């Protein structure tokens, strides 16, 4: 979204101002995201209609500010409003409309995502290949992407399952990594590995 109304910006759906809105008088009200003249509403008007005073705020931080920030810029304030936080993305909508499930893995936990291991595998092999021109690079990328054997991919998936299993116990990051290493080849972490770990973590 831009700071001002109109111009080039993405179409936002009309929304209902959530019950957590700081100014109670706006809670539960429908908020149109287009103006009466048919322009897309910008950040400023959207926030002002919710009772925020954003006179001295910038539109967005550059570089982009961390999610933990509350009110450094208009974009961050709006992204923290419950209706925007819980907004379903275009990608998710597209996937669901095609009849698929869309599951998000926790951020910053690449060990839960087999595709990260696959990327790693592919990148390592891609780097081994001599590339003189861009066409070589494209070919090398395709070749590396296609060369990962199915049983290796299965091992990546297994590894992620073991991490999920360990976190469910719940083990901390380090303990989970240890348990996963100890349990090569099984989808779940065995009882005996858990007891072993328990003895290390809580010595009697
Ligand atoms: Zn910011």
Automatic annotation (TrEMBL):
<feature type="region of interest" description="Disordered">
    <location>
        <begin position="1"/>
        <end position="29"/>
    </location>
</feature>
<feature type="domain" description="Tc1-like transposase DDE">
    <location>
        <begin position="91"/>
        <end position="131"/>
    </location>
</feature>
<protein>
    <recommendedName>
        <fullName>Tc1-like transposase DDE domain-containing protein</fullName>
    </recommendedName>
</protein>
<dbReference type="InterPro" id="IPR036397">
    <property type="entry name" value="RNaseH_sf"/>
</dbReference>
<dbReference type="Pfam" id="PF13358">
    <property type="entry name" value="DDE_3"/>
</dbReference>
<dbReference type="GO" id="GO:0003676">
    <property type="term" value="F:nucleic acid binding"/>
</dbReference>
<dbReference type="InterPro" id="IPR038717">
    <property type="entry name" value="Tc1-like_DDE_dom"/>
</dbReference>
């Amino acid at each position: 979204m831009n700071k001002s109304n109109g111009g080039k910006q993405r179409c936002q759906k009309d929304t209902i101002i959530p019950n957590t809105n700081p100014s109670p008088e706006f809670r539960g009200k429908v908020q149109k995201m287009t103006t009466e003249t048919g322009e897309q509403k910008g950040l400023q008007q959207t926030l002002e209609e919710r009772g925020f005073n954003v006179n001295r705020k910038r539109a967005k931080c550059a570089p982009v500010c961390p999610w933990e920030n509350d009110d450094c810029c208009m974009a961050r304030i709006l992204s923290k409003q419950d209706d925007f936080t819980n907004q379903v993305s275009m990608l998710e909508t597209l996937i669901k409309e095609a009849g698929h499930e869309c599951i998000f893995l926790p951020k910053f936990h690449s060990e839960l995502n087999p595709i990260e291991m696959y990327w790693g595998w592919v990148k390592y092999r891609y780097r081994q290949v001599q590339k003189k021109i861009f066409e070589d690079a494209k070919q090398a990328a395709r070749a590396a992407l296609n060369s990962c054997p199915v049983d290796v991919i299965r091992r990546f998936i297994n590894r992620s399952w073991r991490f999920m299993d360990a976190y469910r116990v719940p083990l901390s990051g380090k303990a989970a990594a240890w348990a996963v290493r100890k349990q090569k080849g099984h989808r779940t972490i065995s009882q005996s590995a858990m007891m072993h770990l328990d003895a290390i973590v809580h010595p009697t």
